[in-house]
Amino acid sequence: MTGLRLLLSVAFLCGASLAQNAPLPLAIKTRLPVQSEKAQGFVLPIKSDADGNIYLRVNEREVVRGGPVLKIAADGSKVIRYDLAKSRELSSAQIVDFAPTSGGGLILAVRRTRDQFYLVRFDADGTIRSEVRLEGDIAPLQLAEFGTGELLIAGTKAGGDSAEIDSIPTVALYTHRGQLIRTLLLKEDLAPAEKSGRATPSGSIRQDRTFEDALVLSSLHSSDDGNIYLMRPGNSGPIFVVSPGGRIVRRITLEPPRRASYLGAMAVSRRRIAAKYVINRDEGGPQIASIVLRVFDSDSGKLLGEYEHSDPSIGSAFAAYDGAEFVFLAADDQGRLNLLHVAPN
After folding, report:
1. Which residue, of 151, 180, 297, 318, is most buried by count of CB atoms within 10 Å of its CB?
2. Which parts of the chain have pLDDT scores under 70?
């Protein structure tokens, strides 16, 4: 299972009209060039930290492996590269996911072989600090770190002796050394995949997504409130909020736009969830009519605001939210990577 590749050049359908009672239109407020970085393809998700730094995995190498991971300063003035090529033992491993860590560093979950997974921890300057094998039978897909240093890992494990179940979605709490603390029980989460390969999702997960898609397109995000947020990619989520120690604080069901759309990304800041919805010109088609951002209260799940743009120069690469402005990644006319701060016009 690999991440979803996203190019910074996106096919927008220009001139798409907004529906009656339209969301507030978005416009570029600030454009910050990223020093020494050209725009290129990358692998979702994009993540951010409490200081506004943005993290993304680029495709400088073959798509399956991907890498390195870039940390872009909030003002675009500095880029740090976290590269597996620096590892003696794991330089050819496949990056599964990454997460910002306390102290400004980064941790990678990587696959060495089919059933061998490792955690690679980097210092803030991009130097590898440690490499440890992940304990247990989970095949990780998403990773995030609590401020305590404990890790939340989401993935799958084999269905065991069941003749009908191929794999089971699993979320578990780990020590910073990759030792399993315990497995979490998420009520009304994805249902296990059947051996037939057909999806059996439950709750608000879209029925036309395969089980594998729903797992791969999920994402884990740490937040300035100390919790970690697990997003499932149904139009309504759900989003699970997990506190340090692995307690499930709440399950949030999002209210999606009334138009046909899909939930593509999220960011959390100041107890608010910014959810990105992609509105296609034709349902399931390649042309994007607009991007809708819906902001929800992270405690109650109440919809607080709705915003939209159909500007190709902004694009669809939503990266961060600070409670007031949204940040997108985009290319300028010279092909350089830019941070766009976007707000209601």
Report:
1. 151
2. 1-21, 60-66, 159-166, 192-210, 283-286
pLDDT of residue 163: 46
Q: Hey, where are the domains in the chain?
A: 5-344
Sign of the CA dihedral with 89 first, then 47, 105, and 249 last: negative
pLDDT at position 166 is 62
What's residue 192's pLDDT?
65
Own/partner pairs, 251-255, CB within 8 angstroms, 24+ separation: 251/186, 251/187, 251/188, 252/296, 252/298, 252/301, 253/204, 253/301, 254/294, 254/296, 254/301, 255/294, 255/296, 255/301, 255/303
Buried b / exposed e across 130-169, counting CB within 10 Å, b at 16+? ebeebebebbbbbbbbbeeebbbbbbbbebeeeeebebbb
Task: Please tell me the distance from the alpha carbon of residue 293 to that of residue 22, in angstroms, as a whole number.
Answer: 12
